[in-house]
């Protein structure tokens, strides 16, 4: 049976809504699998104003996430900045000074059990009745939503990557590497494995790599960095492959004294 997803919902997820932002001109984009939170109650009008242009994500970021220090260390180690200099990555006063843009595949979070919560949590209010996402969208399972999301959101994410040309896209969740590579239209015939990540190039019009997508597990806990050595090791490997594929000018003016 053909599913007819509400057009307003399709337009909303086919956008940059739910992404945290940062600097679209940064050489490193970071992509997590879901946004930080979902409103307790959602009216259909919530979907009326999607963020359709990635320039709308340009904003200074606060280092307020529990793993901000870990993310900052990873990114700084990649570009050769001091690992502890969080302001190079998260700078609420100067968005263009930030070396990352942070994105989310799903504009909604479904907690620790998305498969169940997709069908069980009734948060969308229509005509005084609360519906689950499954009921509202007509997509019966979370997997159906995820596949629909990759297809729809991937169009706008990949187009933005062509325009802004990030050199490294780091995606959270090594087990989702195939979906991430599809999302970013990376070369699925050239997927390579490392002990801590999978990676694949994004190929330009001339047939040469213009960026690399990495799928790995983000590092750190709610208490901050949990393994400084591990973060540095992975960062240096990411840098190595980026330089090998794209040249030693890959990170431009964002490189630091330790590059």
Q: Can you put this structure into words, describing what you see?
A:
- The protein is an alpha/beta fold.
- The protein has one domain (19-106, 152-250): 3-Layer(aba) Sandwich (Uracil-DNA Glycosylase, subunit E).
- The chain is built from 7 helices and 9 strands; from the N terminus they run H-E-E-H-E-H-E-E-H-H-E-H-E-E-E-H.
- It starts with 6 loop residues before the first helix and ends in a 13-residue tail after the last helix.
- The mean pLDDT is 92.
Structural class label: alpha/beta
The biggest sheet amounts to: 7 strands, mixed
What gyration radius follows from the Cα positions, in whole Å?
A: 18 Å
The rounded distance between the terminal residues' Cα atoms is: 55 Å
In short:
By secondary structure, the chain is of the alpha/beta class.
List its traits:
single chain; 259 residues; alpha/beta; Uracil-DNA Glycosylase, subunit E; seven-stranded mixed beta sheet; two-stranded antiparallel ribbon; 7 helices; 31% helix
List the helices and strands and how they pair.
Elements: H1 7-13, E1 21-22, E2 28-34, H2 68-79, E3 100-106, H3 114-120, E4 122-126, E5 129-132, H4 133-137, H5 142-164, E6 168-172, H6 177-183, E7 192-193, E8 197-203, E9 209-216, H7 228-246
Parallel strand pairs: 2-3, 2-6, 6-9
Antiparallel strand pairs: 1-3, 4-5, 7-8, 8-9
Helix pairs in contact: 2-7, 5-6
């Amino acid at each position: 049976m053909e599913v007819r997803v509400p057009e307003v919902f399709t337009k909303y997820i086919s956008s940059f809504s739910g992404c945290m932002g940062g600097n679209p001109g940064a050489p490193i984009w970071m992509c997590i699998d879901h946004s930080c939170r979902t409103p307790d109650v959602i009216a259909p009008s919530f979907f009326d104003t999607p963020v359709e242009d990635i320039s709308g994500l340009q904003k200074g970021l606060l280092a307020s996430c529990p793993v901000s220090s870990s993310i900052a260390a990873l990114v700084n180690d990649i570009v050769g900045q001091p690992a502890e200099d969080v302001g190079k990555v998260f700078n609420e006063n100067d968005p263009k000074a930030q070396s990352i843009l942070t994105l989310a595949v799903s504009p909604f979070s479904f907690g620790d059990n998305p498969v169940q919560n997709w069908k069980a949590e009734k948060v969308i209010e229509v005509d005084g009745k609360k519906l689950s996402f499954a009921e509202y969208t007509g997509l019966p399972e979370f997997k159906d939503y995820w596949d629909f999301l990759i297809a729809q959101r991937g169009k706008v994410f990949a187009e933005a990557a062509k325009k802004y040309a990030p050199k490294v896209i780091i995606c959270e969740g090594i087990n989702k590497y195939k979906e991430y590579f599809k999302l970013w239209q990376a070369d699925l015939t050239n997927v390579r494995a490392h002990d801590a990540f999978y990676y694949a190039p994004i190929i330009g019009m001339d047939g040469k790599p213009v960026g690399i997508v990495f799928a790995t597990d983000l590092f750190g806990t709610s208490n901050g960095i949990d393994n400084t050595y591990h973060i540095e090791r992975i960062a240096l490997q990411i840098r190595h492959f980026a330089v090998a594929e794209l040249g030693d000018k890959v990170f431009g003016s964002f490189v630091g004294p330790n590059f």
